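Consider the subject:
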Amino acid sequence: MKNLLSMEHLSNEDIMRIIERAEQFEDGELSRLTKSYHVSNLFFEPSTRTKTSFEMAERKVGCTVIPFDADFSSALKGETMYDTVKTLEMIGMDAVVIRAKEDEYYNELLEGINVAVINAGDGAGQHPSQSLLDLYTIHKEFGSFEGLNITIVGDISHSRVAKSNATALKRLGVNVRFLCPPEWAGDFESYHSWDGLIEDSDVVMLLRIQHERHVVNKSFSKESYHEQYGLTFELEAKMKKNAIIMHPAPVNRDVEIVSELVECERSRIFDQVRNGVFVRMAILETLLEGR
């Protein structure tokens, strides 16, 4: 692995290697990196979990984190992504973690750039590190993927998490179902009712409604969405005994999920956040080792 851009670029073997290494980090193993690498986090969209998780992971594997503030960068003067990353490479960066509004922004970095590029989210495209931490969370819970039923609920067409996870989970033998309003299905075949889904789901993965990517819809109602698609107490009571709830967060409480269920016994929402550090440590080590 030279870069981490999309789950479509990872084999099942790549995925399992990262999961196994993340597990070793969680068990207390130290990084194999033999020197301090320089990493910068270029976030052109807001982030709490992903940005701070990467910063923590970078420090835990021994990297030197070089600050980058998108609001005071030359990107505001019209500098291209390529020129920004090439500049950081010339300054001495070994890797960059990038979140940008444009789908597949990384295509202009495929040639001529010699630093490791980690995609931390491209528009409504992919979010591979989130997908890998989701896979790690699921693997910790069930020990394997084959034959699991996973229902992904919400804003499918705008969700890079849904797209990344669908790619990987299906390849790993998971039966993936999508539940959403018809206008949010995009290219995915989807269900529009919980009927027949909640009782056999091993994982219910809820998604945030991404209002920032929608054309303004004055008819949208949080209350009606919650009533039809939100995870309620009544639905949670129908879930299998060992089934779990996931959400990449941030959570719109009482919209995608009733607030009291966010930290219920079967919820893994905050465990996902914790697991993200170990997974991102594994990603960084994999990309930087031997550079």
User: Anything to note?
Assistant: The chain has a mean pLDDT of 94. The beta strands are 38-43, 64-66, 95-100, 116-122, 149-153, 175-179, 203-206, 244-246.
